[in-house]
């Protein structure tokens, strides 16, 4: 296995980006990967090509892969120097890999996409511009992708369709496709959300729980060309109802402060 330098990530454990002397980018793209050796390098190169004109970094999180994903990423870094590679010592799941990437991010805005290549990196820029546009609502914290013309097996699409309907009816999160991994959001907003395994599927509901606004945009979807799905319908169904009940409880226990302001000593404030 190629040699690579291990960087300490003590700072992100406490919710802060790693201390670096260089200028921070405008956008951090987080791609969680587990056993994606067949497409890791190609995905990194596609992300880089799609973000011309945007100051970005790419954070690939190898979630304890058992194949040669780490070698593929190290090879990709030769042609994409903006790539940063973060590695879990053991498989911890997609939600934890996303969180690790966000905690490691140096940009104020983060984009996430699945590491299997089914999300099209060409859609990232559009979601980023929608989130950061001048006339965006003051509370807008996330623009989430919704896949059109999904290229999955019929059984998977049917199960996902029903799961989305049930989740949307219970949580009222406005999302028709919360399982889409392609999302762009403000890092600070994400760090205010409660974390639990599989919480990446409930980010719109959790954002709204904190008083943030969420918008949705149609994005493309591509067939899987390598590897295998990390989920199955029965496994996803088994945890979905439990997770939804948990999010319902979290929403019921929320008490948003509406606004948060820091007052300067000696200033004249209207407290009415």
Describe this structure in words.
- The chain is an alpha/beta fold and 272 residues long.
- It has helices spanning 10-13, 40-50, 69-79, 94-104, 124-132, 154-171, 187-190, 203-209, 233-252, and strands at residues 27-33, 56-62, 83-87, 109-112, 140-147, 183-186, 213-219.
- The protein has a single domain (18-252), classed as Spore Coat Polysaccharide Biosynthesis Protein SpsA, Chain A, CATH 3.90.550.10.
- It has a 7-stranded mixed beta sheet with strand order 3-2-1-4-6-5-7, sandwiched between helices.
- Helix 2 (40-50) packs parallel to helix 3 and helix 6 (154-171) packs parallel to helix 9.
- The radius of gyration is 19 Å and the shape is globular.
- The model is unreliable at 4-19 (pLDDT under 50).
CATH superfamily placement: Spore Coat Polysaccharide Biosynthesis Protein SpsA, Chain A
Shape: globular
Largest sheet: 7 strands, mixed
* Model regions low in confidence, pLDDT < 50 over at least 5 residues: 4-19
Number of helices: 9
Q: Report the oligomer.
A: single chain
Mean residue pLDDT = 85
- Order of adjacent strands in the largest pleated sheet: 3-2-1-4-6-5-7
- Strand tally is 7
Topology, please?
Blueprint: H1 10-13, E1 27-33, H2 40-50, E2 56-62, H3 69-79, E3 83-87, H4 94-104, E4 109-112, H5 124-132, E5 140-147, H6 154-171, E6 183-186, H7 187-190, H8 203-209, E7 213-219, H9 233-252
Parallel strand pairs: 1-2, 1-4, 2-3, 5-7
Antiparallel strand pairs: 4-6, 5-6
